[in-house]
TrEMBL record:
Compositional bias ranges of the Low complexity kind: 1-15
Protein name according to UniProt: Molybdopterin-dependent oxidoreductase
Domain Aldehyde oxidase/xanthine dehydrogenase a/b hammerhead as annotated: residue spans: 55-161
InterPro entries found in the cross-reference section: Ald_Oxase/Xan_DH_a/b, Ald_Oxase/Xan_DH_a/b_sf, Ald_Oxase/xanthine_DH-like, AldOxase/xan_DH_MoCoBD1, AldOxase/xan_DH_MoCoBD2, AldOxase/xan_DH_Mopterin-bd_sf
Annotated SUPFAM superfamilies: CO dehydrogenase molybdoprotein N-domain-like, Molybdenum cofactor-binding domain
Annotated spans, Disordered: 1-50
Length: 787
């Protein structure tokens, strides 16, 4: 397979059916019709690949094929902690159809890799540090042969006692040459001696949520005649992956090419290089294309998860409920390797007080290694865990003071010009109080009727509930915040090229479409700027300039900004000859619906006529203003910008059985500017649903470091039947002046906020503290009498 073939398979183009209102699931979208343009920014332009995806014809990595294809399988450790005494590959090598077996001894370059910290071995050599760690890989002429050969590799282990309690990691023997402590952040803000008239304390535990991608990891490695290799995979950060892979292969980066195939959705790091590196090694060893399609079990064992977190909080407030001081200890379980733990900890510590004004804050944060599964990027990392805890504290304060929970929050909300506990001034729009009032004032849903035909409305579904009289309704609130782009000095930059010829525009940018809608946005930007209706977005590979990872709303801001700048440069090239001919400035010309007109009506022509067969193109970069690392006291301007969300959850709880039904989620969000109404509604609804999963069902359970039930039977994802009515009651469009288009990221902050709101509603229904996510049935059982 060639990169040209991949490009042809994955390039996107546009047709323009009109959508006149926000779409969504039950109750999805703001409850009003919107006048929208036919194309460009503000239109509900559908994704070009939506039909192919719904019909099952979209080319994912698992669908790739090449002549002479071999199949790969990876041998993984059955132990969370063990010393490797010997590895005997002879049994696998002697099997008919086996073409190659590789272990740590066959890695020609760097033996370790890591996107943030280079501490993870390609193959374990002396120690196994987590269940599922890669030991060896096999290439064979049939997938079953490859799996049987991997199982035939004989590994002798000395099983060691795993360290699975992150609190014990501080005193445990080092699990890694770099030690067990990955990072410690002590945040100091204000007066340590300050106290409040009312004090509440809480201990909170957040479980291990898995990204659970729709399609498991897959890829194809093809050797090149120059001794290099091409990797076809669903990478979300291809240039970083290329550099890591090249280092492990001992090759220069230009001899490794990563081609991005169709990504079936991503809510974190979609593709760990640990799946790609064995593929490339086997391709280089055999001289043949090699394909890997991971099983669901391998996917659970191989990729990173959300950090399980232990949080201790103490809130001080005055008699009126205004916050005086917040004290917290936050402990992130990083698992065996560092990955993104440092960045996740920074977000957790910085946002530990939530979107509230806190005069004094003293936070201690740690990320430690254990023998649990590795943790990494998952939407809203760090921010989601602390949101569940600080909102639990706000509910406790409201109960102790006898103040309505929404009113208590309103007395403390953050706004533009306030200062975060990191010392950074909030310069972006921060309409937190407006968001909270919007969800508070939205009408509550009707109560279900006590009739047999409405049994499906009760917790547990038909015949799943006990007596209807045992069902209690609760209403709870959550306020959340996330940062945009990278943090603490990350150099954010993206490059894009826009080319126009024969009435067709092409966008070349290495920003990966992961479901966040970048390719649709790029088309809208070009349509808006150049008036060209047909826009293609080229497939992504590492021959293009880098655009960075698809996290924290980066591509809307940085890559979208690069596309806009390149399109404006092409616009200038297009308009300058006309402006010169008519003796006017290009600023006096406008492009709309494919036509160029002047302010006075003297000039009127089409874009196609103005192009006159010429090809115009331009390349541009976008780089936001710099940030800085947090200092030894947790202070610093670490974030480019912030986004906020308010959620009101309504739940029904069977207080005898502990079963929970989420009835409705009312959402108000700070979006900066609506760029695609339908797509925005879908992103918010998806984020809310993922947050409900974290609140009620999703927890990758382990027993002494061993993952229990690594499959979609044991790991319960919310389905369409679990999704409640999601009411987007308000979208605040107060543009962030430093962001291109003024827009903010949309999907992470609902994930952060929804679990806290659901837990708050369960507290309201049961009177129980609810200090663990996901919520266990026993935590929702109340002792209140029926009535």
């Amino acid at each position: 397979m060639s990169s040209d073939a991949a490009t042809a398979a994955n390039a996107t183009s546009t047709s323009l059916p009109r959508i006149d209102a926000l779409s969504g699931g039950p109750g999805g979208g703001p409850d009003q019709d919107l006048e929208q343009p036919r194309m460009g920014l503000g239109s509900s332009l559908p994704a070009a690949d939506s039909r192919a995806k719904t019909e099952g014809t979209f080319p994912y990595a698992a669908d790739l094929w090449a002549e002479g294809l071999l199949w790969a399988a990876v041998l993984r450790s059955p132990h969370p902690h063990a010393r490797i005494l010997s590895i005997d590959t002879s049994g696998a090598e002697e099997m008919p159809g086996v073409r190659a077996v590789v272990t740590h001894e066959d890695v020609p370059g760097e033996s370790n890799y890591g996107r943030h910290v280079v501490d993870r071995p390609v193959f374990a050599s002396d120690l196994v540090r987590h269940h599922g760690e890669a030991i060896a890989a096999v290439a064979a002429d049939h997938p079953d042969t490859a799996r049987l050969a991997a199982a035939a590799i004989a590994v002798r282990y000395e099983v060691l006692e795993p360290v699975t309690d992150p609190e014990k990691a501080f005193a445990a023997e080092p699990l890694h040459p770099d030690g067990n402590l990955i990072r410690h952040i002590p945040l100091r803000y204000g007066d340590a001696e300050a106290t409040g008239e009312v004090v509440v304390e809480g201990l909170y535990r957040i479980g291990r949520q898995d990204p659970a991608p729709i399609g498991a990891e897959a890829g194809l490695a093809v050797p090149r005649p120059d001794g290099g290799v091409e990797i076809y995979t669903a990478s979300t950060d291809p240039h970083t992956d290329r550099d890591l892979i090249a280092a492990c292969f001992g090759l220069e980066p230009d001899r490794v090419k990563v081609v991005v195939t169709g990504v079936p959705g991503a809510t974190g790091d979609r593709e760990d290089p640990g799946f790609q590196i064995p593929l490339g090694l086997l391709a280089l060893r055999t001289g043949c294309p090699v394909k890997l399609a991971a099983s669901r079990e391998e996917s659970f064992l191989g990729h990173t998860h959300r950090h399980p977190t232990l949080l201790r909080y103490r809130h001080h407030a005055d008699a009126e409920g205004r916050l005086v001081k917040v004290e917290a200890q936050i402990l992130l379980d990083a698992g065996a390797y560092a990955d993104a733990s440092s960045e996740s900890l920074a977000a957790a510590v910085a946002f530990a007080c939530g979107p509230y004004v806190v005069p004094h804050a003293f936070i201690e944060g740690w990320a430690v290694r254990t023998n649990n599964p590795p943790s990494g990027h998952v939407r809203g990392e760090g921010a989601m865990q602390v949101c569940a805890a600080y909102e639990g504290q706000m509910d406790k304060l409201a109960a102790k003071l006898g103040i309505d929970p929404a009113e208590l929050r309103l007395r403390n909300t953050l706004s533009t010009g306030d200062i975060l506990p990191t010392g950074q001034t909030v310069t972006c729009p921060a309409p937190v109080a407006e968001l909270l009032r919007a969800v508070r004032d939205h009408p509550l849903p009707a109560l279900p009727k006590d009739a047999p035909e409405d049994d499906w409305l009760l917790p547990g579904g038909p015949e799943g509930a006990g007596e209807p009289g045992a069902v209690r309704r609760g209403v709870g609130y959550g306020l959340g915040m996330v940062h945009m782009l990278g943090a603490e000095g990350t150099d954010e930059v993206s490059t894009a090229t826009v080319r126009v010829h024969d009435g067709v525009a092409t966008v070349i940018c290495a920003a990966v479409e992961t479901g966040q809608g970048f390719t649709t946005l790029a088309r809208q930007i070009v349509q808006e700027t150049l008036g060209v209706e047909e826009v293609h977005v080229a497939a992504v590979d590492t021959d293009q300039p880098p655009a960075g990872p698809a996290t924290h709303g980066r591509h809307t801001w940085v890559s979208g900004g690069a596309v806009e700048r390149a399109a404006k440069m092409v616009r200038t090239q297009l308009l300058q000859p006309l402006a010169h001919k008519f003796g006017m400035s290009t600023e006096l010309l406008q492009i709309a619906d494919g036509k160029i007109t002047s302010y006075d009506g003297v000039l009127s022509t089409t874009v196609t006529e103005a192009m006159d067969g010429k090809e115009l193109w331009a390349t541009a970069q976008c780089r936001p203003h710099p940030t800085e690392p947090l200092d030894e006291a947790g202070q610093g301007d670490a974030f480019v910008g912030l986004a906020f969300c308010a959620v009101r959850a309504v739940v029904d709880v069977d207080i005898e059985l502990g079963s929970i039904r989420v009835v409705e989620m009312a959402v108000a969000q700070d979006v900066g500017r609506v760029l695609n109404p339908a797509q925005l509604a879908i992103r918010i609804e998806a984020g809310i649903t993922q947050g409900i999963g974290a609140a009620l069902t999703e927890n990758l359970r382990t027993a002494k470091g061993l993952i229990r039930h690594p499959d979609l039977t044991g790991y319960a994802l919310p389905t369409a039947l679990d999704a409640p009515d999601i009411r987007i009651v308000k979208l605040v469009e107060e543009r962030d002046v430093v962001a291109p288009f003024g827009a903010k990221p949309a999907s992470a902050v609902p994930v952060v906020t929804a679990p806290a709101a659901v837990a708050s509603a369960v507290r309201s229904a049961t009177g129980r503290p609810v200090n663990r996510l996901p919520i266990r049935p026993q935590a929702a059982v109340a002792t209140a009498p029926k009535g």
